[in-house]
Amino acid sequence: KQRYGAPRLTDELRAQGYQFNVKTVAASLRRQGLRAKASRRFRPVSYRKHGLPVSENLLKQDFYASGPNQKWVGDITYLRTGEGWLYLAVVIDLWSRSVIGWSMSSRMTAQLACDALQMALWRRKCP
């Protein structure tokens, strides 16, 4: 990311043969009004107290399937890209552990999950 704060800049200067300590480099950066661009730690947001009905847990942690198309599971996650956030919805067959349907969108909507399920139904030739 090529972000140079006082510690990293001090290491670079020492590698070039200059003898400065971190405090001297930090003071010099402050005098010049320079600051390293620090990346903020990403914290996901979850809305667990939404008050909406939650679907029943039909699998009850039993993720074993003895054949294809017996148990499908799905999930939605978000990915940071250079252009912003993208949401990815996937449907996985627990027998083969393979992704059988997926959909991406810049917005997390019900249609995103429906599109992933529609792809899974189409790929598995279900009515």
Automatic annotation (TrEMBL):
Q: What InterPro entries does the record point to?
A: HTH-like_dom, Integrase_cat-core, RNaseH-like_sf, RNaseH_sf, Transposase_IS3/IS150/IS904
The record's similarity note reads:
Belongs to the transposase IS3/IS150/IS904 family.
**What organism, scientifically named, is this protein from?**
Salmonella typhimurium
**Matches recorded under Gene3D superfamilies:** Ribonuclease H-like superfamily/Ribonuclease H (3.30.420.10)
Q: Upper lineage ranks?
A: Bacteria, Pseudomonadati, Pseudomonadota, Gammaproteobacteria, Enterobacterales
Which GO biological process entries does UniProt record here? DNA integration
State the PANTHER family in the record.
Answer: TRANSPOSASE INSF FOR INSERTION SEQUENCE IS3B, TRANSPOSASE INSF FOR INSERTION SEQUENCE IS3B-RELATED
Q: Which residues form the Integrase catalytic domain?
A: 64-127
Q: What is the name of the protein in this document?
A: DDE-type integrase/transposase/recombinase
Described by its record, this protein's role is as follows: Involved in the transposition of the insertion sequence IS3.
| GO terms for MF | nucleic acid binding
One matching Pfam family: rve
From the record, what ranges are coiled-coil? none
